[in-house]
Amino acid sequence: MTDRDLAQALRDAHAGLPGIPFARVLAGARARAGRPSVSTARVAARLALAGAIAILLAAVFLPDSAPPAGGTRAEWSAPTDFLLTRSELESPTDFLLEGASP
Amino acid sequence: MLSYRRARRDTQGTEDSLERQIEALHDASVQWALACCRFDPVEAEDVLQMAYLEILEKRARFEGRSSFKSFLFGVIRSVAASRRRRRFLRALLLQRFGDALAPVPEPPGADDRAREVRAALARLSARQREVLDLVFFHEMTVEDAAAVMRIGVGSARVHYSRGKARLASLLSRAGGADALATTEGT
To answer: Of B46, B79, B77, which Cα lies nearest the Cα of B144?
Structure first.
């Protein structure tokens, strides 16, 4: 099949289709002008919905504030428990390794 | 005030000039829009309206990097592609693949040859179909077709040669089948 045959085939494919007048297309385009695009409105609606769902999930699943690793909430809310007492501070050898000389 | 009036007049002038350029290419644009919309006249009209609006409202700007025809055809192609994608996604979401993929009904009075070529074209990839339509029907060069399709010239050449071979094979097969049917009928 030559290029000429293919060109004729393409012309045949376009044959017999109804025409679309320019004035009609232009009038339709002008009627669309200024109308908010459907896709923009949809994207905005979907973003708003996704944001609302994310906020809802965060409120349900995230705790108000996380306790430090290894500690329970009760320990964390009473941080003085971790402070050394005066007697402990005055006998620092308690902390030395067994067998080591001071 | 004077400058405002002048600016408004200039804008009006540009719009008129754009409108005249679009009108001069309207018949070719209709055929190209039909080719981009699987020869569906209703869809092609919507695509044309949106493409003309993109240009007249300057959302798509002609910057003189190609011919105005290539630019206009590029806008039409991109609008048609985005509508096609949106329709497909909607079908995907609603699980109605049949609607998106259903063949477009032939217009009444379409002859057998037209139907046969359109069926063969429908079996090509979109890019092969587009490059063949631009080169053989709109008599563009492969370079111009590449500019319309926004792909590299090398890539356009590959689509062109593969599309040509496949279309020729499909049409020969269809022609052979027709000849066989005629022989069997007699």
So the answer is: B77
End-to-end CA distance of chain B: 82
Question: How near does any CA of chain B get to the CA of A61, in Å?
Answer: 29
For every residue of B141-175, DSSP letters joined together read: -HHHHHHHHTS-HHHHHHHHHHHHHHHHHHHHHHH
pLDDT, tens digit (0-9, with 9 covering 90-100), for B55-111 = 998 888 898 888 999 999 999 999 999 998 888 888 777 766 555 556 566 665 567
Residues with Cβ within 8 Å of A79's Cβ and at least 6 positions away in sequence, in order, are none
Q: Summarize pLDDT for B103-131 with one digit per residue, the tens.
A: 566 665 567 888 899 999 999 999 999 99
**Token digits of residue A43:** 């994207």
Question: Taking the CA of residue B83 as centre, how many other CA atoms within 13 Å lie in the half-sphere pointing to its CB?
Answer: 21
Cα–Cα distance, B149 to B144 (Å, whole number)? 9
Residue A94 has pLDDT above 80, yes or no: no
A contacts of B132 (beta carbons < 8 Å): 6, 10
Q: Is residue B58 helix, strand or coil?
A: coil
Residues of chain B whose C-beta is under 8 A from some C-beta in A? 19, 22-23, 26-27, 30-31, 34-35, 39, 41, 44-46, 48-50, 52-53, 56-57, 86, 107, 109-111, 113-114, 117-118, 120-121, 132-133, 136-137, 164, 167-168, 171-172
How does DSSP assign A29-56, residue by residue? HHHHTTSPPHHHHHHHHHHHHHHHHHHH
pLDDT at A22 over 80: yes
